[in-house]
Amino acid sequence: MLGIDGGLAEAALAHHEDMCLLTRSTDEPFYRLVGTAVAFPTDWIPARKMGLSLTAMHAPIHGYAEQLASGVDHFMARLSPDRIFGRCNWFIAPTGRMRWLAAEQPQSAFAAVTAQNAGEMLFVRCERQTLRRLPETGAILFTIGVYVAPLRSLSDANVARLALAVAALVRGEGDRRGAPCYSEALRGFATARGIAIASA
């Protein structure tokens, strides 16, 4: 737990979700990460993100600065204390561990994955995220609930959606996530299960 007071630590220990705290200085138009209680990171190290702006935090994500940064900053500035916003994010990981810090390049991490074993060797990692403004301080609490399941446990419909989503990843972001290293195996797994996948 980094840069947090007892309140955030106590809240994090009482709930499944990881928690991040963001604040904005009066002389800055953007929010910075000032506290974390993160047990299950998805390939990021909280200590390296402390104090960074949202744009700097998301620098590895292809297209964030050009396409999303200004909209996200505007949304954060207008977030009111009486509403909670949620979204989901997904990843394909080569491990079922809740705590995932990639220790090797995708080419190595996914090297043994084939259409025949993808159901056991690929893991779908979903993050249920929420954003809310704390009424007393004006800080923003960002929560991340992590759920991990082997590819074989997904329904046919969800396997089809996932295959399409992987194929649709923008160039650069797909490379960052290692998609070229497992996409064919995923589609082969779907085909072997008799799952029809529309063209991307």
What are the low-pLDDT stretches, counting only 5+ consecutive residues below 50?
A: none
What is the tally of helical segments? 9
What is the β-strand count? 5
The major β-sheet equals: 5 strands, antiparallel
Overall pLDDT metric: 91
H/E element order? HEEHHHEHHEEHHH
Structural class estimated from helices and strands = alpha+beta
- Specify the helix fraction band: 25-40%
Which outline best applies? elongated
DSSP strand (E) fraction? Answer: 15-25%
Q: Measured on Cα atoms, how large is the radius of gyration?
A: 18 Å
Sheet with the most strands: spatial strand order: 2-1-5-4-3
Distance between the termini: 41 Å
How is this structure best summarized?
The chain has 200 residues and is of the alpha+beta class.
Question: What labels describe this entry?
Answer:
9 helices, alpha+beta, five-stranded antiparallel beta sheet, elongated, 200 residues
Please, could you describe this protein's structure?
The protein is of the alpha+beta class. The chain contains 9 helices and 5 strands, in the order H-E-E-H-H-H-E-H-H-E-E-H-H-H. Strands 2-1-5-4-3 form a 5-stranded antiparallel beta sheet. It is elongated, with a radius of gyration of 18 Å. It starts with 5 loop residues before the first helix and ends in an 8-residue tail after the last helix.
What does the secondary structure layout of this molecule look like, with pairings?
Blueprint: H1 6-13, E1 18-23, E2 32-37, H2 46-49, H3 54-57, H4 64-78, E3 84-93, H5 106-109, H6 118-121, E4 123-133, E5 140-150, H7 156-168, H8 173-176, H9 183-192
Antiparallel strand pairs: 1-2, 1-5, 3-4, 4-5
Helix pairs in contact: 7-9
